[in-house]
Each structure stands twice: as C-alpha cells, then as structure tokens.
Specification:
It contains 3 helices and no strands. The protein is mainly alpha-helical and 90 residues long. The longest helix is centred in the first third of the chain and has 34 residues.
Length: 90
C-alpha cells in the first residue's frame, strides 16, 4: 500500500479552500444575476441599498481570496525558505 507523503494533507487543504472559494463566487454571481434580472424584468431602477448589498457580496469574496493569500501556505512556505537561507530569524 503506498504511503502518503507529508505534502498530501496540505494539498487536500488547498483543494478544499479552492473549492469553497469557487462555490462562494458562483453563489454570489447567481444572487447578483437574479437581482439584476428581477429589477430589469419589473423595470424598476436598482436602489442604492441593493447596490450596496451586491458590492458587499463581491467585497466579501475579494476579502476571502486576500486572506487566503495572506494566511495561505504560499506565505508560510516563503517565510520558511527565507529563514533557512538567511541562517535563521533576527
């Protein structure tokens, strides 16, 4: 039976995070499209409150992606390689 490498759990974690981000973006796009469609169908101008909510949705998605980049494995991996090449932290 093949043994799992030490990178396997981290790879699974990255796949899970990527899937969650993709699902959130799809749901946000569907909500935005349905709101725009309903306002267009009823010929009602989109109010500032609705626009604020939609921009909040998309801002939340960007925040999730930014936090993943900040706290993701890419950043910690870079810090570990910097410490080993520089001889340790100061």
């Amino acid at each position: 039976m093949p043994q799992k490498s030490s990178k396997q759990p981290k790879r699974d974690k990255n796949k899970f995070a990527n899937r969650i981000i993709a699902i959130c973006i799809v749901v946000t796009a569907l909500v935005t499209a349905s709101i725009i469609y309903e306002y267009h169908r009823l010929e009602i101008p989109v109010t500032a409150d609705i626009l604020t909510v939609m921009f909040g949705f998309w801002g939340g998605e960007l925040l999730i992606i930014a936090l993943r980049q900040i706290f993701g494995s890419d950043v910690t991996k870079k810090n570990e390689t910097d410490e080993t090449t520089s001889g340790g932290s100061i």
